Amino acid sequence: MLKGFREFILRGNVIDLAVAVVIGAAFTGVVNSIVTNVFNPLIGAIFNADSLANSLTLVIGDAHIKFGAVLGAIIQFLIVAVVVYFVFVYPINLAKDRAQKLRDKGVAHPDAPITELDLLTDIRDLLQAQRPAEPAPGSGKHAE
């Protein structure tokens, strides 16, 4: 039972997921700080409030409906989406596209292991290089 648990914990995807959660939590702190300390005061200044959370407030009786706080959450979401896309998704997709173009051109990665097909291709090329040049068809020269 402990062996199975150890194998589960040491799987690559579980470790990767744990790292992603920790990095995500740290990243959330940075984004919250940017929104709270930069965007909230700027937008709050536009609406004459001390912060975005206190702007665009609708008071109905004792209830305070804070549209500014919702706007702040939307801005925070958009900042996270922009950063995740341009820092993670776009560069990874760019690298994948470049790798695919190299594969399509037949350029192998320098560290890639040599396959049987590679060896057979090399043998074919060597044999063709050793063969004397044959006249082109229709050139008028015939082999005797």
Structural class, by secondary structure, is mainly alpha
Strand order of the largest sheet: 1-2
Average of per-residue pLDDT values: 78
User: Quaternary state, please?
Assistant: single chain
CATH superfamily: Large-conductance mechanosensitive channel, MscL, domain 1
Helix/strand order, N-terminal first: HHEEHH
Largest sheet: 2 strands, antiparallel
Q: Residue ranges: pLDDT <50 for 5 or more in a row? A: none
CATH class: Mainly Alpha
Q: At CATH's second level, what is the architecture? A: Orthogonal Bundle
How many helical stretches? Answer: 4
N→C terminal distance: 79 Å
- Count of beta strands: 2
Beta content: 5-15%
How does the overall form come out from the CA principal axes? elongated
How many structural domains can be distinguished in the coordinates? 1
State Rg: 32 Å
CATH third-tier fold name: Non-ribosomal Peptide Synthetase Peptidyl Carrier Protein, Chain A
